[in-house]
Amino acid sequence: MPHVLHIELSRNPVNAFSAEFRRQYGALFDRIVSEGRDVHAAVLSSAIPKLFTAGIDLTDAAKITTGGLHGGAKVDSARSSLASLQDIKDFHYAISAPERCPLPVIVAVHGLVFGLGIDIISACDVRYAAEGSQFSIKEVDIGLAADVGTLAYLPKITGNHSLMREMAYSAAIFSVADAERMGLISRVVPGGHTKVVAAALALAGVISGKSPIAVSGTKRILLHSRDHSIADNLEYTAAWNAAALQTQDIPEALVAVKARRAPKFAPLWNAKL
After folding, report:
1. How confident is the model at residue 64 (pLDDT cuts 50, 70, 90)?
2. What is the pLDDT of residues 67-124, one digit of tens each?
3. DSSP symbols for the chain
4. Does residue 200 sit in the same domain as residue 220?
5. Do residues 8 and 85 share a domain?
6. Per the confidence metrics, is the pTM higher than 0.85?
7. Which CATH number fits the domain that encloses residue 128?
8. Domain that holds residue 154
């Protein structure tokens, strides 16, 4: 499919996120821009048929709490805390990569979406789930408040705060129907892995036919709107579109409509490979 990047999580047996796996995950999204890829939309899914992800690799989680990611040297608690702070910030940076990416990221989940899985999907633009998917904000079960994005994003992206808090406090497994009722996902797709990925790719295909300047600008303005007042966002939008209105995508779109053909838009970036 032209201009659509399909990213699959593939770390057997359950897509558990180790330190290296999450670094590669974040770097992949950043490479879209750094390499000048002509991508207009991305789909994130799992290559493992039975689930999306079981969350963080618990071996790595144990290393973080004991300072094991920084070798065996003994340090005082202040230095240990600073090291942990950097670990957490690095974690945030990797998992928030879909939001940092200047194009829409659609996530298609199936099976289990536990712990870190909620952090991952919360940083994406659009969330689809196969029927039968199960979710859990699992961190309290290992003695920790979720700290990689879930508790930051969910109050912004969900409409049912009572249900969201119930699940966050209890670590209960909740259904795809609850996820939809909460506002965590926008669509429940009948069927399993293959069907939900196909639905996400279909949406990505529609988006990829639009002006990449318009779509990228829409994402940036929506993100700004989430965290700012209406007045501030209108000021930001005016500044953004003062530049964006110079695009050749507008005359190309108008000519294409008149000629009853698909528009042909230039890439957002010059290829750097």
Report:
1. low
2. 555 555 677 889 888 988 998 999 999 999 999 999 999 999 999 999 999 999 999 9
3. -TTEEEEEE--TTTT-B-HHHHHHHHHHHHHHHHTT---SEEEEEESSTT-SB--B-HHHHHHHHHTGGG-S----HHHHHHHHHHHHHHHHHHHTHHHHSSS-EEEEE-SEEETHHHHHHHTSSEEEEETT-EEE--GGGGT----SSHHHHHHHH-S-HHHHHHHHHH---EEHHHHHHHTS-SEEESSSHHHHHHHHHHHHHHHHTS-HHHHHHHHHHHHHHHHS-HHHHHHHHHHHHHHHTT-THHHHHHHHHHHTS---PPPSS----
4. no
5. yes
6. yes
7. 3.90.226.10
8. 4-208
